[in-house]
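Appendix C reproduces, verbatim, an entry submitted by the partner laboratory led by Prof. M.T., so that reviewers can inspect both the input and the predicted structure.
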Amino acid sequence: MNHRLKTRIFKILSIFPDGLGYSLYHLLQDIGSKQTFEDKIKSTKLSYTTICRILEKNNLSLENMKIAELGSGWLPILPYQLILEGKARKVDTYDINEHYNTKEIKEVNDYYSNSETFEIESRAKYPLHKTLTYFPKTSICDGNLDDVDLVVSRFVLEHVPVESIIEMHEFFNCALMSGSYILHLISPSDHRSYTDSSLSLQDFLKYSQEDWDDIQTKFDYHNRLRLPQYLEIFKGDFEIISLEHSAINTNTEEYKKFSELAIHEDFSKFNEQELMAGSINILLKKK
């Protein structure tokens, strides 16, 4: 779908009350998605593999960990991979929205039903693995993280206002045990470019905050934070154990698109690498 058409549709949905607006949003996402269920499994497995690799590089393992997932998304695929493949002890998943639905939960449960340790418990609205607890319409700041070993997020932080990111990490600093970890996978690029190849991955950096706020909605919110801004938020209370991000390649079409952008003055203090840094993976440790 053309990003301009999508924006117009989201603007219309924003007019409706939240209940109706999100119901229509879910319907449109379901109709418009080109991803098969198998695609979703493979995509999430790539993230799971990245999580395992980063932990192993730092002599850590998912086994027997209690994990809090920040942002449940649409399906419990990552929690199931953490539990069934990583052998995590327990996963609590928090989301300020409620995107799960019974039809897709059944599809995920059926897919993993042959796993040796797969055991369903019917709690509340959704039947989920017995060691997975879903907290919809709940801020993680209202959760109990007393015995959590690892907080993990997958492509969530870029959709969170900076004030909320700061608030969450202040809460993590108070609530987590010393020596606990936080692992964020962040996608800081303009997501409109994923469906419109004419756009640069940094296209949204040409707008002022006022103009960008006029374009985006609650359904496609992106904070546009650059790498140094994330690091500034994290470094006060946490030790940065591992940091990965994509590097500039000036011999690519993507760099050519970027170099043709008139970057707004709001981002003038950042160099090219800081502006273009994508696929940010960062592991933090509670001091």
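The two ends are 45 Å apart (CA to CA). Additional entries are available on request from the coordinating office.
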